[in-house]
Amino acid sequence: MLGRNELCPCGSGRKYKRCCLNKDVVSERAGRKVVLSQKQYSELYTRIQEYSKQDKFKEEYEKAKEMFYIVEDESINAKFERFFNTYFVQDHIMESKKVMTVDFYEANRDNLNTKEVEILRNLFESYVGIYEVKEVLDGQILLTDCLTQKEVYTEDVNLLKDFKVGSCMIARIVSVEDTSILIDVTISISNAVKDIICSDIVNLFNQYEDLYKDMSTFLIHHTHILYKYMQQLLDPSIAEYLKQQKDEKMNKATQEVALTSEDSNEDECRVCFALRQNVEKDNIDSCIAFWNEYKQVHGEVKGSENGWAAAVEYHIKKVAGENITQAQISKKYEISPSTLGKRYKDLKVS
């Protein structure tokens, strides 16, 4: 064992007591802060989870499952139950337009202390993101959010001990007092996977940018998208399932589009294309006719074709008296129920 006055073996040229010994002390302190923060978070999270188990939230629980899970296989989905529980209490937008954490806060505000209120407010703004290690420091790691370019320091160094500068991950960060901790499972990803996911998310944001003020707001409302990437990365069978589904949709759409009129304008084709990819044969003609009539009256429309297509299908099925939910339709078009709700309101106002 090295003496306090011997040179440190790290090559710094400084004495051990002034170098790595200090690093050990800093790391130990950081570790204690993380443990305390995790305890505070876990205690509050447990209370929120118990609150969410009330009978009045059963329907919302089922809607959240429809939005979150990719395949209908209980054995596969059981692997992601922890992810889902976090999604349900922190991200799922209910019919009340609130997430569970907000509902919990409003129902229990008189019984919450200052620290708990602060944690809840940080949870309101948390999301699953793509991060890259920018710098490894004593007791801290500096991460860059690859989608917002914001930087955040985390003291969760033990969890990230195998990550180096340039390493990338899918993670969820929550601030507890002055400590940033990572919750759920943090997944290491390659730079190539990081680039693919970031490109996909940016493209989606560009389609919906008229609905969200910035990327952070978009991610807060679409956290389920990153959770779905997590599911694919952790279970290759899900990725294969999605590939097959995509191929089948593309083949169907290609055949259907060949039958459409060549004089349709570009915007019409995009929405009709999305409809033909997703709507069943019994409803497709009604959806296309309704959309063409809407376009004729309103002219140019802004926003994602998937958002408009989802609203059209939801409207037609509601008129037909079908028992359908916004969560079911949103999942088909890979959008959030809140986005569908906004477009559906646009259709109804007209």
Write structural notes for this entry.
There is one protein chain. With about 350 residues, the chain is an alpha+beta fold. The chain folds into two domains: about 1-235, no CATH class; about 235-350, Cyclin-like (Cyclin A, domain 1), CATH 1.10.472.10. Helices cover about 60% and strands about 10% of the residues. The chain is built from 15 helices and five strands. It has helices spanning about 20-50, 60-70, 75, 80-90, 100-110, 115-125, 190-210, 215-220, 225-235, 235-255, 265-280, 280-300, 305-320, 325-335, 335-350; strands at about 130-135, 140-145, 150-155, 170-175, 180-190. Strands 3-2-1-4-5 form a five-stranded antiparallel β-sheet. The longest helix is centred in the N-terminal third of the chain and has 33 residues, at about 20-50. The chain is globular.
Key traits:
350 residues; alpha+beta; Cyclin A, domain 1; 2 domains; 5-stranded antiparallel beta sheet; 5 strands; 11% strand
Number of helices: 15
Overall geometric form: globular
Number of strand elements: 5
Amino- and carboxy-terminal Cα gap: 78 Å
Q: Name the strands of the widest sheet in spatial order.
A: 3-2-1-4-5
Task: State the order of secondary-structure elements, H for helix, E for strand.
Answer: HHHHHHEEEEEHHHHHHHHH
Percentage of residues in strands: 5-15%
The structural class is: alpha+beta
Low-confidence stretches: 260-266
Count of distinct structural domains: 2
The major beta sheet can be summarized as:
5 strands, antiparallel
The percent of residues in helical segments reads 55-70%
- Supply Rg: 24 Å
Mean pLDDT, to the nearest integer, reads 86
